[in-house]
Amino acid sequence: MADTVTRSGTTSPGLLASLDPLLREWLPRQRWFAGKGRPVTGFSQVAATELLPAGARIGLYHLLLRAHQPQSPGDCYQLLIGVREALPPRLAPALIGHVTSGPLAGRTVYDALYDTRPAELLLEALRTGARIGALRCERDPEQRIRSGLVPRLMTAEQSNSSLVYGDTFILKLLRRVVPGVNPDLELPLALAREHCPRVPAPTAWMHADVDGDAYVVGVLQPFVQGAADGWELALRELAKGEDFAAEARALGRATAEVHRTLARALPTATLGRAQIQPLVDGMVVRLDAAAQAVPALRPYAPALRTAFTALADLAAEGHTWTAQRVHGDLHLGQCLRAPTGEWSLIDFEGEPARPLAERRMPQPAVRDVAGMLRSFDYAARSADPPAPGWAHTCRAAYCSGYAEVSGADPRTDPVLLRALETDKAVYEVVYEARHRPDWLPVPLSAIHRLAAADLP
Ligand SMILES: Nc1ncnc2c1ncn2[C@@H]1O[C@H](COP(=O)(O)OP(=O)(O)O)[C@@H](O)[C@H]1O
Ligand SMILES: [Mg+2]
């Protein structure tokens, strides 16, 4: 690929070479870096656009870089690199490093999302539907974007990075990007077309075009002011010893509204034996790998396997299920409650670790339900003291709320629900064993329950 900086037409062949040693250190330390634990051995440029000339007081590059790592083809990351003589103290957390060679020698480079001017420039590009170098902005003509909104970078732990503009809009910049239709834009757009009020409607979005491939790199949407996320709220109520059933029921209703609209807006499918068997096979493979990795799971493996084979057996008897587009990574942290009490669902990216094609496949809607049920359990077990009864009440209320809107209570399909919840809990066991061993008892308590087939 040409090592070109596209806006000004100038080429800067040494740009990547001069950033390389700094990025090797900096990138693996970022919360959103997916390749933790393996070194970055180099970069290749997928796209580069000069947004502000490097010679100016503030320079700005938009980069898509593939980070090479041993045993992996390398993920592609979106970076906005600011260039200054020196950083003012307020930008200290943004520092990437001081460049020693190449075209930027002697200058300081930093994560430009922390800086006002670059953040303003992104909003301006979205507002005006700009095309700059590889970047192409589009917007919903129905929504107005005021100019001059003051940006701030969200500091929450995230898998991507978000800028909030004047408490009016939030711009999510995707960090790990892949070419193709991104469900994080696709699904909210589809829901907005159907006037579904449970999801903030995309206001504008940005693609990077590279050799005929389009990468979604940013989505701007209305900021839900004064919102609290479901996880925060649940923990707060737990700490007060309050029940959360009314909220759980409202969340069930919101989930069903979103599902109903997605089923109307996008393709659905029928899953019979031929489709269920590979799903079940996948679940069994993941269980076997998990049991291999986490000894504490082993005693439960045979019983858990029956959760999966029971689903295959039903399919073999001729039972079928409807599949549709789903959220794909639904949990309390992906739900926002506005001060009006209305819930919104956000973050339709799905599980970023899974391939895009898989994330966009129609699936049983109960998969999202299983995710939320696990989330209530997580909240309850992270309380001090743990409150399993609280989770039980929330789970029941959530399913009831879901049934009120959809007409189908997820608990009436216990085999599917148990299989999906088990698959999720197995994933959690592996995750916690690897990243947060202190949390391992949380999914293990669910494993204990699921192995005994004690539902819901
Ligand atoms: N429309 C919105 N209004 C208010 N806050 C939002 C909105 N969208 C996202 N957020 C906040 O930003 C956080 C991260 O957003 P999310 O889309 O989940 O990104 P990530 O992919 O990084 O998890 C959310 O947990 C929420 O706190
Ligand atoms: Mg999220």
List the helices and strands and how they pair.
Blueprint: H1 15-26, E1 42-52, E2 59-69, E3 72-84, E4 95-98, E5 108-111, H2 116-127, E6 131-132, E7 135-139, E8 151-153, E9 161-165, E10 169-173, E11 176-177, H3 183-193, E12 204-210, E13 213-222, E14 228-229, H4 230-240, H5 245-265, E15 269-271, H6 273-293, H7 301-316, E16 321-323, E17 335-337, E18 343-345, H8 356-359, H9 366-382, H10 388-406, H11 414-435, H12 441-451
Antiparallel strand pairs: 1-2, 2-3, 3-5, 3-11, 4-5, 6-7, 7-12, 8-9, 9-10, 10-13, 12-13, 14-17, 15-16, 17-18
Helix pairs in contact: 3-5, 4-9, 5-10, 6-7, 6-11, 7-11, 9-10, 9-11, 11-12
Subunit structure: Monomer.
Protein name: Maltokinase
EC number: 2.7.1.175
CATH class of the largest domain: Alpha Beta
Strand pairing plus helix content: what structural class?
A: alpha+beta
- CATH topology (fold) name of the largest domain: Aminoglycoside 3'-phosphotransferase, Chain: A, domain 2
Q: Give the termini distance in whole angstroms.
A: 53 Å
Percentage of residues in helical conformation: 25-40%
The count of β-strands is 18
- Number of discrete helical segments: 12
What is the chain-wise order of helices and strands? HEEEEEHEEEEEEHEEEHHEHHEEEHHHHH
Estimate the mean pLDDT confidence.
94
What fraction of the residues are assigned to beta strands by DSSP? Answer: 15-25%
Shape: globular
Output the radius of gyration: 23 Å
